[in-house]
């Protein structure tokens, strides 16, 4: 089989997969019958009104839900890291390829050109002028065009260390795509470093970041790069080693593996850290759920009152003390649910992204 035949087979297989994927989303849906002579016929043709075929069964598409949550998390990250317009540009890329995204483990989004993105972006986004562009040497007073603004943001997102956008020249000239593979690592590492900073401090987090960037280093190299005293570096490495964040790789100079003739290199087992962080997050959600049950348990008397029909119809029947207790309970439960939501977002990035 020649390379041309192989390419034709792959194209046919991909077309079959795309057809089956599209069919699975429309199966069980049929167009609603509309009178072709009626006034609403044209509107129905545009809106593509459909009705459910009751002979079919439906199920939740969890993959689509996860892809939606992932896309929203990426847009929020771009907005937080750069600015709101950068988040809108990333959102335009994701919206452009939404129907072509099939799996959560894809390496990149469907590609798009700056022209495509410029046509999707609302005009008010490009009118913000929140990016500085070099003046035109011929017409210094000329405002940059929408296409120039879009290209500038794409270049900014492409060169950012987070890796939002990558070139997709293999799909055609001037094509770009959202780099899911890079963003997976970036967003997981962002969560990991943030928790380290909160738990151990900025200096300790700096040691871990240096090891992640440089690879395996000995204690002397770490001390110089982190600009910390040797004693403090040793103490922090010992603390991180106890927590399982860093480990030691022994490299003996001789066959007898004598300690005096052995290099000891520190490194971060990142996949192991992510797994341990995921387990800790599960445990934290379990603790929050247990706390919620306890908060409700100690207010059984108040809950019994709230379930009474007369109180449900008229909350003013509750006494002042019960109303204050109700406000406190709602405040506590709101905090618990907010914490659970944040932890659930962390689980999505660590496990599902």
UniProtKB/TrEMBL annotation:
Record's subcellular location: Nucleus
Domain DNA-directed RNA polymerase III subunit RPC3 winged-helix: 193-268
Tree of life domain: Eukaryota
Residues making up the signal peptide according to the UniProt record: none
GO terms, biological process: DNA-templated transcription
Protein keywords: DNA-directed RNA polymerase, Nucleus, Transcription
GO MF assignments: single-stranded DNA binding
Gene Ontology, cellular component aspect: RNA polymerase III complex
Domain called RNA polymerase III Rpc82 C -terminal: residue spans: 19-185
Homology family: Belongs to the RNA polymerase beta chain family.
Oligomer status and interactors: Component of the RNA polymerase III (Pol III) complex consisting of 17 subunits.
Functional summary from the UniProt entry: DNA-dependent RNA polymerase catalyzes the transcription of DNA into RNA using the four ribonucleoside triphosphates as substrates. Specific core component of RNA polymerase III which synthesizes small RNAs, such as 5S rRNA and tRNAs.
Protein known as: DNA-directed RNA polymerase III subunit RPC3
């Amino acid at each position: 089989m020649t390379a041309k035949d192989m390419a034709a087979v792959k194209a046919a297989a991909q077309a079959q997969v795309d057809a089956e994927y599209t069919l699975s989303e429309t199966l069980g849906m049929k167009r609603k019958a509309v009178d072709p002579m009626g006034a609403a016929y044209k509107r129905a043709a545009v809106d593509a009104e459909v009705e459910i075929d009751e002979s079919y069964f439906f199920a939740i598409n969890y993959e689509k839900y996860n892809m939606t949550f992932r896309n929203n998390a990426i847009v929020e990250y771009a907005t937080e890291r750069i600015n709101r317009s950068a988040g809108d540009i990333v959102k335009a890329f994701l919206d452009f390829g939404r129907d072509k995204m099939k799996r959560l483990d894809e390496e990149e989004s469907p590609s798009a050109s700056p022209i495509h993105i410029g046509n999707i972006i609302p005009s008010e986004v490009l009118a913000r002028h929140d990016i500085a562009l070099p003046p035109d040497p011929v017409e210094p007073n000329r405002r940059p065009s929408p296409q120039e603004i879009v290209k500038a943001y794409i270049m900014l997102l492409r060169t950012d260390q987070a890796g939002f956008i990558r070139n997709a020249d293999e799909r055609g000239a001037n094509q770009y795509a959202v780099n899911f593979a890079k963003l997976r690592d970036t967003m997981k590492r962002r969560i990991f470093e943030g928790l380290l900073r909160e738990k151990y401090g900025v200096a300790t987090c700096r040691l871990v970041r240096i090891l992640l960037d440089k690879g395996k280093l000995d204690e002397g190299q770490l001390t110089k790069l982190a600009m910390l005293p040797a004693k403090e570096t040793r103490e922090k490495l010992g603390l991180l080693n106890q927590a399982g964040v860093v480990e030691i790789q022994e490299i003996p100079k001789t066959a007898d593996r004598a300690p005096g003739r052995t290099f000891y290199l520190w490194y971060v087992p990142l996949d192991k850290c992510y797994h341990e962080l995921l387990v800790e997050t599960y445990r934290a959600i379990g603790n929050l759920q247990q706390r919620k049950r306890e908060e409700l348990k100690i207010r059984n008397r108040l809950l019994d009152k709230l379930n009474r029909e007369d109180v449900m119809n008229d909350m003013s029947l509750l006494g002042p003390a019960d109303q204050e207790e109700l406000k406190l309970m709602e405040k506590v439960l709101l905090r618990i649910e907010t914490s659970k939501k944040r932890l659930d977002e962390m689980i999505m990035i660590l496990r599902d992204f």
